[in-house]
Amino acid sequence: MVVADYDLIQHDFPALATDRLVEQNPGMRTLDRAGRTRRAHKVIDDWLVGNAAVISSAQCVQAEVNTPIDHESAQRIAFRPPSYGRSLIVPVAYTAGLKAEPDPQTARLLDVKGAGVAPGVRPVSADYGNGLEYLGCALADLVLKALVDAVFEHTRSAFTSVPVYAVLDLGFDVLSDRFGRGPAGMHVRRAHRRPTDGMSVPFSGSKEERAKAEVEFLLRSYGITTTNGMNALEIDRSESDMAVINNKKLVVSLPPADREFLEELLGGRTTARLERINVQFADDVHSDPPSGSVVDFGHVNVKERFVHAVCSPVRDRPLCLGGVLWPESDDYIQPDPALAVPFAQWNRQTLNDACTGLAHRFRDRELTAREVDAELRRRVAGALDRWSTY
After folding, report:
1. Which pLDDT belongs to residue 390?
2. Do the beta carbons of residue 8 and residue 48 sit within 8 Å?
3. Beta strands in the chain, from DSSP E residues, in sequence order
4. What is the full DSSP assignment across 41-63?
5. Mean pLDDT for the chain overall
6. Average pLDDT, stretch 147-167?
7. Where are the domains of the chain?
8. Which residues are bridge partners to 183 per DSSP?
9. Is the distance from CB of 165 to CB of 321 less than 8 angstroms?
10. How far apart are alpha carbons 336 and 333 in whole angstroms?
11. What is the pTM of this model?
């Protein structure tokens, strides 16, 4: 266990509340308040590992994208919704020695990310292909989630994020030619609904499209964005023919209708890079007021300045291009100097490196879970201090 939100877990799973545990374990009654809390946290740690530390059988039978996985032979039931990739939904089954079963009216599921590939799939060292998550990246995502939550609170927005119960160290390493070797980790999140068709790209003009744009524009005042090169469209017609790169891949054959659409979109420009908004919601988006629960922060980054066109992705227009806002527009949002978090500390590479260092030091027993948690909180608190008088 690296990081855990014990208060949230006890709220969602009342059987793990300290008072309930004291009732079920008479030996805890002799402890003072601090001792009871420590014992309760130990029970919750065991409960999280017993319920959430799962890995797919297809992941366990190979050692190409990870070091050998030491695992138990017992099998668990899990569910992998459409387009869920490396994540699973697991029923709560392990009670960590609790004498009473959890209340059936309370939470009975966990959402875990980094649980391996699906049956019949061979993991590969490619983007989103190995089924795993680096522990350092999981910690960085957690910090960025806290930062985005703080923006929502500071702006008095109705948007929230899907809660994270914990981040686990799975005990083996991820192997990658691109990112190197590092401890494997896992997000443990509150179970939530996703769009029933597995598609996170909305229809044009929908409440989902508007909500995604609103979140992106809220974040941009703080120097935060969900856009990146992996989700961008690059167009170059400086030569005789039009070259189009979509999501880092060259478009070999562009349909005439799409070419005409891009010609009209470019106007007098010869080159353009359109960065698509990549806000992902659980299936709970509302329009009055705009609200929804954001999930997944691996694509969130911090910029000193925005220089490219931003667009909303939609599923029913060519190349998934919805509304486009060009940098020269009066409505184009740049970071507010009074609000923007420091780029030098918060850009994704620096944050990933810092959190990867924490992950290695935790694995090597140079840092305790409490010390890792304190360091993550310190980083977020430093950003919040900038907003206290604004």
Report:
1. 62
2. no
3. 3-4, 87-91, 109-113, 160-161, 164-174, 182-190, 224-225, 232-236, 243-246, 249-250, 271-276, 286-287, 290-291, 293-294, 301-302, 309-313, 321-325
4. HHHHHHHHHHHH----HHHHT--
5. 91
6. 96
7. 3-192+346-387, 207-294+305-325
8. 173
9. no
10. 9
11. 0.92
